[in-house]
Amino acid sequence: MNFLSLFVLIPLLMMAGLALSRNMKQIRTVAVIGSSLQLVFAFIVLFMFLGERAAGNTAEMLFVADTVWYAPLGIHYTVGVDGVSVAMLLLSAIVVFAGVFASWKIDPLPKEFFLWLILLSIGVFGFFISINLFTMFMYYEIALIPMYLLIGVWGSGNKTYSAMKLTLMLMGGSALLLIGILGIYFHSSADGNLTMNILEIAKNNAIPHEMQYYLFPLTFVGFGVLGAMFPFHTWSPDGHASAPTAVSMLHAGVLMKLGGYGCFRVAMYLMPWATTELSWIFLILTGISVVYGAFSACVQTDLKYINAYSSVSHCGLVLFALLMWNTTAMTGAVLQMLSHGLMTALFFALIGMIYGRTHTRDIREMGGLMKIMPFLSVAYVIAGLASLGLPGLSGFVAEMTVFVGSFQWDDTFRRVFTIVACTSIVITAVYILRVVGKLLYGKVQNEHHRELTDAAWFERLSAITLIVGVAAIGMAPGWISNLISDSMSVISERILQYI
Amino acid sequence: MEYSYIILLLPMLMFITLGLCGHKMSHRTAGLLGTSGLFIITILSYIVAAQYFMQPRVDGIYPTVTPYHFEWLRFTEWLHIDLGIMLDPISVMMLVVITTVSSMVHLYSLGYMHGEVGFQRYYAFLSLFTFSMLGLVVATNIFQMYIFWELVGVSSYLLIGFYYTRQSAVAASKKAFIVTRFADLGFLLGILLLSYYTKTFDFATLTSGDVSLVGTTEGKTFLGISVASWAMALVFMGGAGKSAMFPLHIWLPDAMEGPTPVSALIHAATMVVAGVFLVARLFPVYVTTPEVLTFITVIGAVTALYAAVVACVQTDIKRVLAFSTISQIAFMMVALGVTTEMNGHGALGYMASMFHLFTHAMFKALLFLGAGAIIHAVHSNEMSEMGGLRKYMPITHITFLIACLAIAGIPPFSGFFSKDEILAAAFEKSAFWGVWMSLVAGLTAFYMFRLYFNIFWGKEAHHEHTPHEAPKTMSIPLVFLALVTCFAGFIPFGHFVTASGLSYTIHLNWTVAATSICIAVVAIALATWLYMKPNDKPARMAESLSSLHRWAYHRFYIDEVYMFVTHKIIFRYISTPIAWFDRHVVDGTMNLMATLTQSASYHIRGLQSGRLQSYAVVFLLGAMIIAAIVLYCI
């Protein structure tokens, strides 16, 4: 057992602790201690990783450990991290930490809620440390199932429908994925030594081209459903709208990133030839996603729908950038995942807090909240500014890296789509300022709102954690960009060989 | 120059301090903290400027100094964003302009914003703005400029929307941000194109002539226009947005919703000239694409005339000043546009443009601050509520008059010298532009004196309280800026800032100067005749030119066109259908699949009824069919 498995072990212990706790206080204690440990550990891994790299260890994956799990089927439990996974682990730990504080007063069944939430986080952490198709898929499923219950039980509005829709669509995606993974497995080696280890499959490079032709779309779409790729994104608005705050945070903040991460780690990395052949289809779809999501967000009136569509737009940019193949754009994609993860988690946290007070998410029924809840409002403005790409916050860094990377191609097709994607910076400004103007500025719409209180300490802590993350990436992007691009260049160079 | 980083650092620290702890401070502490910080960096900027211009020239030009820079974010092998400080004649000049106006505005606001709710927030935003603006002008590369460009945009947004409970202020701030954002999209694409071909963001490399945009894009055209021109025109689009050039000017008049000192600082003296500064910064590249310079000239000339005509009929004093700002910035743009070479006679426009930028910043800030004092006294922006104020507000009156004389181009005030150089440069290019711009200069004198007489002379409006002179904190900046306006014209500007960097002695072109003075005097006389004493001549004139008057008053309905495009077309015909399509077609398909599955299973469910008889029937039928197939087909 390698120390990376602590990422899974800590939540497991947390779950045990939760199961034993008898009152709210104990539940909170366990959740806070567990998620703080997780956060500290994520930083430790980051520094260990940087240390190893500084010491000259240039292996593609560090801290690799491999244990045979079920020998007859060649199933191994293999973990390891590269720069991208380290960054994603850090993101997950931050969002989980903030999520715990955002669900401080969850009701009813707090114990069960936290149990499922932590189980979800196991899936997420496990996914990012896996370098084996089997464990990856397993963790992926572990992350999906709790969503159903979390939305179905603790959700709001049309929650049964939303929970069902979200689960079924994502399950549909994972069905495609399963076929894809099996296909990869059976072609993983030319000499009959079949393996599920991603590094070995990549080294063998034995998947025949005609198989790649089928397996690439299967895996890319399979993961793409979770990454809200047009036209498979419709689970996202309904799902987010019904989900409780912390679940929306974790889901939009981290779980959707599993989609993008899987796309490059499995689909693109293992099938570089098909990537170069078939990217154009997905480039069109994701290019559409970017502006389509943004335009849709312009006319929504429910805060969560606005953010769900904005996520479609931002996550579309992630996949779009990945399909540009070069290191810069792909690094931009991961930066966008981080940035979107932090900022959407912040958005959903704030929306949850506002909803908890006003009992409405309709922007037409609110107004002038700046006067009533200054802290929440300022945090909302910051999240909004990050979303529209203000320099000094994370969105700018991510978007600019994507645009500069995409612009390094000079064929008309990619140029046109890059310019189309660039226009999203204007449309994003339109819908963000529309919400900010209606929700926070102007006159107080509902006199009852005047009695509402501003954020409590745990809500402040949750929001500040995320704001610090957003600002840290935005102000000093150099180190994290280097961390990611070092690892991304391996994947990108592998693909670029084939053009 | 080694302390130049403090000039940037201090406003940023001030912003963070006031932003995070401002609400715990008293108004007095916050205001004094902000103002004293600004005075420190103003003095530092003067020291930097003195040191810079004191240093020996190398080959006749002041060398560019880069005291600080570091890599902030690396994109590719050759493209990386650096943050740093670059000092050259124009950035040093901008440092002086920005810190001077900003410190005056900080001081003035102590009085003007006294007792306002959100006083600390106001000072925090002012510091943020000052920081961003300073970062913009000292940028070492175009991407750093873009970063600070966006930051000034957001500070402007925050300050326009300072009175956030007022619907009109919120709408104006949103409009300002979105219109400039749209322009910035062009800027961004321009940067991407420029950097793709030249492989650098660095101003030093771009302007040194080592890499030539025209050379690297040789033979590449798009829609019949060379890629080099596209890149530079797109970059200019960003500048046109910030500098409110037609047709992207629509946000500036509305931006007057912000507090008046903010209008003086951001929307008159500093941020709005960022576009001019951008063109000047990249001028060595613009010179290689003459068609873009022609484009800039045309845009500038049209804007100058348009804004001057509109300014003649507005009744809100801040709006008159806003349109006058647009018109004056257009003068600077035209001056750059008519510059055809880096050296020699054709290069006059560059120097003229920068000179006008400098003088205009001072007298326009003075005008706005004066307007602020007037609004403070009569609690209204409308001219009809004013009149006869010269008796009550002598200091404001005299300083306002000085600024009006300066902008009208009457010697020896500063505006005369810089405007004369612009007109000379325009005549140098062609008589057409020269005459055009001289006419606009005449209009300028007319509408400024219309404003002046309507405020300080004319019919006295009924006031609830007797108007009173502004407090000291407000009148000191007025007097200081008035003094600058009186004497700035005698600065040997050509000695410091020229296109090539070589020293140039300004000598007045007396033919041009005499004409322009004559035009100005005639225009002022006309304004005096019409507006000095209460009479019905202006009303009769508006009557006889009623349709022109109406069109000009409504700013030629440009705003309405925009409203139509954004609300009708984008919201109603793009966004709404897309949202509908998503809910009903894309999501509908998903729901349809679910419904189909459900209904299919509903029907199949009947087969698993549990009744033995129906199983027996199905079994028998099945057996018979199979038997039949076996018997007849095989």
> Order of strands in the sheet with the most strands of chain A?
1-2
Give the ordered list of helices and strands of chain A.
HHEEHHHHHHHHHHHHHHHHHH
Distance between the termini of chain B: 101 Å
Structural class of chain B: mainly alpha
Amount of beta strand of chain A? under 5%
Low-confidence parts of chain B: none
How much beta of chain B, percentage-wise? under 5%
Structural class of chain A: mainly alpha
Count of DSSP H/I helices of chain A: 20
Tally of extended strands of chain A? 2
- Fraction of residues of chain A in helices? over 70%
Largest sheet of chain B: 2 strands, antiparallel
Number of strands of chain B: 4
Summary of the model, kept short:
With 499 residues, chain A is mainly α.
Q: Can you lay out the helices and strands and say which pair or pack?
A:
The complex is a heterodimer of chains A (499) and B (634).
Chain A (H helix, E strand, L loop, with lengths): L5 H15 L3 H31 L7 E9 L4 E7 L1 H20 L7 H20 L3 H22 L4 H28 L11 H7 L4 H18 L8 H8 L2 H26 L1 H27 L4 H20 L4 H32 L10 H4 L1 H14 L6 H13 L5 H11 L1 H16 L17 H19 L2 H19 L3
Antiparallel strand pairs in A: 1-2
Helix pairs in contact in A: 1-2, 1-4, 2-3, 3-4, 3-10, 3-13, 3-19, 4-5, 4-10, 5-6, 5-10, 6-8, 6-9, 8-10, 8-11, 9-12, 10-12, 10-13, 10-20, 11-12, 11-17, 11-18, 12-13, 12-18, 13-15, 13-16, 13-19, 13-20, 15-18, 15-19, 16-19
Chain B lengths: L3 H18 L5 H28 L10 E10 L5 E8 L1 H24 L6 H19 L4 H19 L6 H32 L4 H6 L4 H4 L4 E2 L2 E2 H16 L8 H4 L5 H10 L4 H8 L1 H4 L3 H22 L5 H21 L10 H31 L15 H15 L5 H16 L1 H26 L15 H16 L5 H4 L13 H22 L5 H8 L1 H8 L4 H48 L6 H22 L1
Helix pairs in contact in B: 1-2, 1-4, 2-3, 2-4, 3-4, 3-11, 3-16, 3-20, 4-5, 5-6, 6-9, 9-12, 9-14, 11-16, 14-15, 14-19, 15-16, 15-18, 15-19, 16-17, 16-18, 16-20, 17-18, 17-19, 17-20, 18-19, 18-22, 19-22
Descriptors for this entry?
heterodimer, A: 499 residues, mainly alpha, two-stranded antiparallel sheet, 2 strands, 74% helix, globular, B: 634 residues, two-stranded antiparallel ribbon, 26 helices, 71% helix
